[in-house]
Amino acid sequence: MKSNAALKTEIQALPANALIEASAMYRQKFNKLMTEMAFYKALERMTKEQVLVKVSKGVYARPLITEYGLVKPSQEQIIATYTRDNKGMVVGYVLYNRLNISTQISKNTVLYSNAIQGNIKTIGNIKIERRDIDFTEEVCSAIAILEVLENYYNIQDLNYFALIALFENFAQNYDEEILNKVLSVCKYSKSTIAFLRCILDYYKVENNLSERLSALSSYRHPTMEEIYEFART
């Protein structure tokens, strides 16, 4: 009973709409106080008592209570939970929108985060993929351009002027150590690496990306001259 009371106190001390990764909370704070089965049964009881709401498998929240009833965390709050404080970043069309390279909207949102248990977690229309890296500003910039290059041929309504500005900015601030760190954790195709090499070579930025490629292979990607031509048409 004391362990149940301690769990309830822990949860009630959280701010409204705070997300709870059940497995992480159990492992970090309650594995010496109660069995895992007892822990999850306690969560079920608190859900029935409306102390908690279940957001998805293994994820709960302390709900915001209003005069109209319980309010679950919004999509923005969920995204913030898994991305703030260098915990992750959005990719896909949300990223492309932020980079101004596309105005297309997707019904689904994809995140990379170091703050989930397991490799993939789905919360509503939000898919979270685990990446074991500290998402600093520099790391996020490197991942952003790699995501754009990886999906170049599939991005709808591509704004080539914004794309060129993205390339120029990345080339000016290129950090090979950061890129190598990202590539050790995030997997991208050889064509994407070759595309990035093409960009850096065009802007005369020294790089070692050829070491990741085969001199005997041909990789599909546009040239910078073609991209500038697309921007003019």
UniProtKB/TrEMBL annotation:
InterPro entries: DUF6088 (IPR045738). Pfam families: DUF6088. This is AbiEi antitoxin C-terminal domain-containing protein. It comes from Candidatus Scatousia excrementigallinarum.
